[in-house]
Amino acid sequence: MPSIDDVLSQSAYGEILGAHPRALKVRAARMAVDRARARLLRGEERSFGPSDLQDALRALTTPNLRPVINATGVVLHTNLGRAPLAARAADRVREIAASYSNLEFDLDEGERGSRYAPLLELLSQLTGAESAVVVNNNAAAVLLVLSALARGKEAVVSRGELVEIGGGFRVPDVMAQSGAKLVEVGTTNRTRLADYERAIGPDTALLLKVHRSNFAVVGFTEEASTRELSELARARGLLVFEDLGSGSLAPLEAEGLTPEPTVRGVVASGVDVVSFSGDKLLGGPQAGIVVGKKALMERVKAHPLNRAVRVDKMTVAALEATLELYRDERLQEIPAHRMLTLRPDELRPRAERLARLLAEKGVRAAVERTTAQVGGGAMPLAAPVSYACALEGRPALELQERLRSCDPPVIARVSDEKLLLDVRCVEEDDLVRLAGAVASVI
Predict the structure, then answer these.
(1) For the domain that residue 428 is a member of, what is the CATH number?
(2) What's the pLDDT at 121?
(3) How many CB atoms lie within 10 A of CB 228?
(4) pLDDT at position 213, please?
């Protein structure tokens, strides 16, 4: 095995290391030698060579967070960053991130302004609410609202709506941190309006409704509607807060999708406060959006926790640009909306084109009809029809693993011992790169 000094001093290796800083060259040389030594100790015959140094340098200089090709068929894939941004939103982020901006400066008055200002009119126009607050995710939004409006008091909620969200976090645990006392009513599958009514007492601050966006209860079920809860709350002088979760701003209609309440519809039903995510069905950046009555939003904004969970300038920029697309009725420019509403007769030709590109590179693939997923804890009963290229006759799990090492990495799924490349989330421009990645590992 060569010494580190040998690797750094030999001209053949010097060409590979190029003009990188010396500290990086040393790290790459050590990694390459260590890997070669481990290989020899395993009994493999290949000793140290230039390719080891190239691989080590590539590993050290490749960003840990990078784009991937999503061939899973899951549109809002939580592990893959959920909704990709629209081109307009990405351009706006680049523009704002690389320069100073009027994030908290009122250009008309020449004094300090609110970072929510670019979003308020758009959110009011699109949801029908009087005002809004935006924080870093919907769990933070729920925590903030309950802290501001129900701390030290009771929030009445159905047992069937106490869900667990991603990462093992449970909504009741998040809510408990607000200082509000949860009063559970009804049963897992049936909660009537009378259950809420009986639970109301002198310490009740609000009625809480949680949209079951990441699971469904079917069969012998019953629940009080948002409008019924709003009417009960008004009669008893209480507030109604709905955690809508997935946050649909416009109806999503396509084969295999299930109905989803819109934020505007929930606001129109009389709810005082609604919270929802920005990176799910809305198709924007990660954010927790709270809309509702102006007086209540002022209380939420003034709460000290709001400072801890506020959004940065990139989120404001991306969300504003995404909301503009809704305002201008240009929904097909929002990737998540476009992918979710693709028809089977649009997806099959895409899969057939991928199969042809693979065939040109000597890889045989069969086009198969599949079922995709909405993902992101939204529309749990949805079963959108999709198409995929199936690779048979090869170790599917091994191939899946090797595809993750490509540049860009390809994330595929395995079903019935076949590797499936679902094209619902693969843009036309990425088909050539996808075919090339598959060919490179076979």
Answers:
(1) 3.90.1150.180
(2) 96
(3) 16
(4) 61
95 torsion bin: left (phi>0), alpha (psi -120 to 50), beta (else): alpha
Contacts from 89-92 at CB under 8 Å and sequence distance 24+? Answer: 89/284, 89/285, 89/317, 89/318, 89/319, 89/321, 89/322, 89/325, 90/318, 91/321, 92/317, 92/318, 92/320, 92/321
DSSP character for 85? P
147 and 246 together in one domain: yes
Mean pLDDT, consecutive 10-residue segments, the chain of 442 residues? 87 84 92 90 85 90 93 95 96 97 93 92 97 95 95 92 67 83 88 93 95 69 89 96 92 91 96 96 97 97 95 97 98 97 96 96 94 88 94 87 92 93 95 95 88
Could you tell me the two tokens for 234? 């008004």
Identify the pLDDT of residue 220. 73
Examine the domain organization and report whether 135 and 196 are in the same domain.
yes
Q: Which domain holds residue 311?
A: 87-333
DSSP string across 261-302:
-BHHHHHHTT-SEEEEESSSTT-SSS-EEEEE-HHHHHHHHH
Which tokens sit at 95? 């523009």
The radius of gyration of the chain from alpha carbons, rounded to an integer in Å, stands at: 26
CATH number at residue 126: 3.40.640.10
Query: In the chain, what are the helix, strand and coil shares in percent, each to the nearest 5?
Result: 45, 20, 35
* Residue ending a domain, choose from 333, 360, 375: 333
pLDDT of residue 14: 83
The position carrying tokens 């260590």 is 34
The position carrying tokens 């009417």 is 231
| 245 plus 307 within the same structural domain | yes
Taking a C-beta distance cutoff of 8 angstroms, is the pair 367, 355 a contact?
yes
Q: How many CB atoms lie within 10 A of CB 395?
A: 11
The span from the CA of 201 to the CA of 156, in Å, is: 10
Residues in the chain: 442
Looking at the fold, whether 240 and 362 belong to one and the same domain comes out as: no
Q: How far is CA 109 from the centre of its chain?
A: 37
Whether residues 238 and 358 fall in one domain:
no
**Cβ 302 vs Cβ 138: under 8 Å:** no
What element of type H or E holds 73?
A: none
Predicted TM-score (pTM) of the model is: 0.91
**Are residues 23 and 73 located together in one domain of the fold?**
no
| Distance, C-alpha 222 to centroid of its chain | 30
Domain count, the chain: 3
Distance of CA 51 to the CA centre of its chain: 37
In this structure, the answer to whether residues 269 and 181 fall within a common structural domain is yes
Amino acid at 320: E
pLDDT of residue 181: 92
